[in-house]
Amino acid sequence: MLQPERPPTRRRQPALRRHRSMSNLNRKIIITCAITGSAHVPSMSEHLPFTPEDIRTHAIDAAQAGAAILHLHARNPADGRPTPAPEVFRQFVPAIAERTDAVINISTGGSTRMTLDDRLAYARVAKPEMCSLNMGSMNFSLHPIAARMPSWRFDWEKEYIEGMEDMIFRNTLRDIRNILTEFNDYGTRFEFECYDVGHLYTLAHFVDAGLIKPPFFIQSVIGILGGIGPDPENLVVMRSTADRLFGRDQYQFSVLGAGRHQMSLVTMGAILGGNVRVGLEDSVYLAKGVKARSNAEQVHKIRRILEELSFEIATPADARAMLGLKGRDKVSL
């Protein structure tokens, strides 16, 4: 009697080898700081940087506080509106590079209002060590916040936040393939932003296609409306799924907790063997009801928590070695 054919299984590292690092307190943890982003608007916090001078200052201070990677977006200096313009990036990125040794990570996410070519414009010029890459098209919305805003600082903000309810962030499989193909030629590596379990399987698809090679950097984004929710169990699901798909020794895991979930989820991520991301792009708060006055405040806080847990903080040189980056001398910032 013929036996039914078993579905193919992904061959990865044995479980014991995968999980060995979970209890290793001597490993180094990379702190990424996302300085301003494109989702929050200035009315949400008077401390959100949007001029080139403020973005530069916040980034340099965050690096001095212990951030090994700086995740950067640009904004219109007149009103804080997200912009993809290379001429705006050039007003702060070279100065950050001169003042810090941090890895400069240029977002290819931009905003839902930008075209793909808009979002890639500066990264194509700079050819940086690292870019961010969202691993799929998705609903991405902060629109419930609009009902809680007492006033707006600039006239574009209300429509921008409310309009997210009817906007989709686009990164199709073809978009992702084209970005990987182009930026592999530059030697750029990626912060793979995975907002749900399906994004991990998309990542695995491109690993199997040979377009992504280890070590790769998975940023697990928890708590965005449209993505996986902020329940702690979901962080375990993301970690265990990545282990099953790739084998723990093939990738670096990191955690981004959105909004009020920031510090608790990134701390849990570190305990699960991961790295951490903070910054005013992800949360404008330092503690319940307390606005963060700077990105450096959030870096100082998570660094203190991690060091109290006996973890060691990675330097930029450590991060470059852990992620296989090409080095600052090979970029055109």
Automatic annotation (TrEMBL):
EC number(s) given by UniProt: 2.3.1.247
Keyword Chloroplast part of the UniProt annotation: no
Span list, region Disordered: 1-21
Pfam families reported for this sequence: BKACE
Top-rank taxon: Bacteria
Single GO MF annotation: 3-keto-5-aminohexanoate cleavage activity
Cofactor: Zn(2+)
Record key words, sorted: Acyltransferase, Metal-binding, Transferase, Zinc
Biased composition (Basic residues): 9-21
PANTHER family: 3-KETO-5-AMINOHEXANOATE CLEAVAGE ENZYME, 3-KETO-5-AMINOHEXANOATE CLEAVAGE ENZYME-RELATED
Protein name listed in UniProt: 3-keto-5-aminohexanoate cleavage enzyme
